[in-house]
Amino acid sequence: MQKTLNEIEQQVGGKLSGGVADVHLLVDGVSTDTRKMKENQLYIPLQGERFDGHDFLQAAADQGAAAALWAKELPAHSPIPLIQVEDTLVALQDLAAAWRRELGVKLVAVTGSNGKTTTKDLISAVLGVRYQVHRTHGNLNNHIGLPLTLLSMPTGTEVAVVEMGMSRAGEIARLSEIATPDTAVITNIGEAHLEFFGSREAIADAKLEIREGLSPDGVLFVDGDEPLLQERLAAEERKVVRVGFAPGNDDIAQELELKGTEGIAFRSSAAGTRFELGMMGRHNTVNALLAIQVGRHYGLVEKEIQTGLNRVERSGMRLETAIASNGMTVVNDAYNASPTAVRATIDLLVSLEDFREKWVLLGDILELGDQEEALHREVGRYAAEQGVTRLFTLGERARWIADAAGETEGTLAVTHFSTVEEAARHLDQDGDSSVVLLVKGSRGARLERVVDHLTKGEKRR
Hints:
Helices cover 34% and strands 21% of the residues. It contains 16 helices and 22 strands. The strands form four sheets. The protein has a nine-stranded mixed β-sheet with strand order 9-10-8-11-12-13-14-15-16, with helices on both faces. A six-stranded mixed β-sheet has the order 17-18-22-19-20-21, sandwiched between helices. A five-stranded mixed β-sheet has the order 2-7-6-5-4. β9, α5 and β10 (159-163) form a beta-alpha-beta unit. It is found in: Cytoplasm.
């Protein structure tokens, strides 16, 4: 983003304090963190429960900030020009919305309980074959991250692909109003954040808030196998494209081939073409279909779409595979977890035919509210019933997984660990090249620490 202070003042409804010459001062980008501040950026001090960015004005100036937004009483002396606003967060969001309008890009917004980051990556790779694409990086998908993603769009961007996350009702609506997408994608409805919503039905309603900012002629792409979405979209006036495995979808995955750690292959009924994807798991078929249909919507032909699928750059800790020092294959899917996602990755694990031993290490699944024990136990029973060779758990809540699996009839060996070090030591001693280990847990469980111990940080793909 490049704007003069006068333009910023008008777009955020603020008041510039400083000399007349400051009106025409050009700002190049924004930052909310003085530790990452670049010269000539606009500093936007945010306030939280334990911090106040206004306290770091001098640090921002020392790092080369050109100016700052300000939501407190003006200081007697400021090292840089200030634009006074009522709320710096709202001003950040307003500035992002203005920059999005100014560039006039096509915008694809992606949300869902699981798979939204992978689907965002797939769509970005596909559209990037023909267009200049800007996408969400890292976890910048909330009320702060989305505006920062929009404001980092360079001139020349043709399509933006942004991710929208939430933990409360109303949050997706606000993000959609800021981004005003032309195309919206909902990957699925799971149990993530169940603690704050109480039911999957409420989660579905919250995800569908993405329609709030969707243009009147916009198109919605969804998982057509999810009944909660179909019920709520039955009377939708905008075009809805449904994908999945079930008959009746607009694009149906056919002739699915699970190729182990090499990925998947399937036929798209709508395109009449067979596609290959270097990502493991049946669940990634629907994510790929969403990317294929968004690509077709934006005019790409099948050859271009396959080229994009071949180029996809996955975000970290999403089915990353590596070889441990003992020869064991480790599949790191530890970025986050919900019961639905855990079951999908267990299905993936048992489908891998190149390994004699199929082990899974599961951590706590967070934000499940008063259903957390029951849902953890369901996961344990599922692991026991699906043919996993050994189940390992780590974490206070994960013990419920171990207990339920141990109570389920069968031959599954179950071990619960108390510490990361204990888990890593045990797995390192027992594993060998005949073993594939899947690692899955919520972000708060930080199971990647076990992976790092086993692999010494080495990633294969």
